[in-house]
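Fold this sequence, please.
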Amino acid sequence: MKVSIVGASGYTGVELIRILSFHEKVSLNQIVSRQFAGKKLRSVFPHFSKSRYEDLIFDEEFDLDSDLYFLCLPHEPSLELVKQLTEKGKKVIDLSASYRIKNKNAYPEYYGFEHKYPDLLEKTVYGLPEIFREKIKKADIIANPGCYPTATLTAVYPAVKEGVISGDKIVVNALSGISGAGRALKQQFHYPEAFGNSYAYNPVKHRHTPEMEDVIKSISGKNIKVRFTPHIIPVSRGMIATVIFETDLKKDQLVELYRLEYRYEPFVRIVSRPPQIKDLIGSNFCDIYVDFDEKTGQAVVISAIDNLGKGASSQAVQNMNIVLGFNEEECLKDISLSSILFP
């Protein structure tokens, strides 16, 4: 099977190239980047020298010779490109947010554009395999989840599915590495600004909030609100989400609920201590810790992922494996890089 990456020079695109370099069932047919058009992969990113695709040349425009396309583009260009590709019978995994939310009215409010293709929106499957695996198998358009929603929804899914959340809201405090903001230059992400610094941003109206609420409603049928506060921390990659909700269950019951729900999931690990991002870097795993605060009657569920891995590129490859009928774990069972370097 032949695949293409459109927007291949950003962080998620480069990470996709790295992962696909070790995938035995697909061939990376084309990498598209207008910024580096005409240049070899190894000349732009020297760490690919002597790798499988070192001589692949960045193209300015995509062709139609591939079976599946990864879109690592801003939201509005992806909106149009998904339509173009699906009209040609191609499968698409979109890493932007242009097809993640079923409610088309959320796009003008949170993303600043009108969604012109509600028919395609209805056909799109949200690409979180632990929840929507069976639908992903039959999908032509997969909306790869955002990193914050991946960490949050994986942390809350068993409780939402079984209806054990009391009340109508959950509270999420999340920490992300700087790479989540992308490769484009912004002052607050320059080294002197970011080193030794941390801050919350968009604490009241963050773009990922309707995405999370939309998926939670699709699972539970309830309008559960998400009180979400994202933070930047001075690391390049990695993410932790602490999710708090009221419940009548006790700790042992909660832990058992999560263990049973995820017992057959290859990339979810229920851990006995709060997870650390160094245990996830370079992997497709999500580590989840479950606890209960007796004083407040609230569950505390902490999840950790690599925001460029399970939060983006490796999850996109997991979705590719599912939709193309490969072993879901193909090329994704590597142990975290940091666990090897810092045991």
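The CA atoms of residues 271 and 289 lie 5 Å apart. Residues 2-143+312-328 form a domain with the Rossmann fold fold (CATH 3.40.50.720).
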